[in-house]
Amino acid sequence: MSIERIVMAFAGIMIMLTLALGTEGSPIFHHANWHWFTAFIGFNLLQSSFTGFCPLAMILKMVGKKPGSAF
Question: Could you read off the pLDDT of 8-23 as tens digits, one per residue?
């Protein structure tokens, strides 16, 4: 799996998890402040689309994952 696909999968999983943790009525509800983390993930995705800077991609590159064509 390429770096781009890992980053997209990780972001999607984290968004779904933090929404579930922050939404009342969810079976795993913890606290509404989890929505701040969801907003941080969205902001990071937006800024990385303009700047190309993604901390997770840098970490994955250091551990030996190969970049590829996401689409």
Answer: 999 999 999 999 999 9
**Is 42 contained in some domain?**
yes
Which residues 6+ apart lie within 8 Å of 35 measured at CB? 18, 19, 22
Q: CA-to-CA distance for 3 and 59, rounded, in angstroms?
A: 10
Structure tokens at 29: 């509800």
pTM of the model: 0.85
The count of structural domains within the chain is: 1
* Per-residue pLDDT band at 3 (split at 50, 70, 90): very high
- SS3 label, residue 61: helix
Structure tokens at 13: 């999983």
Residue 16 within any structural domain of the chain: yes
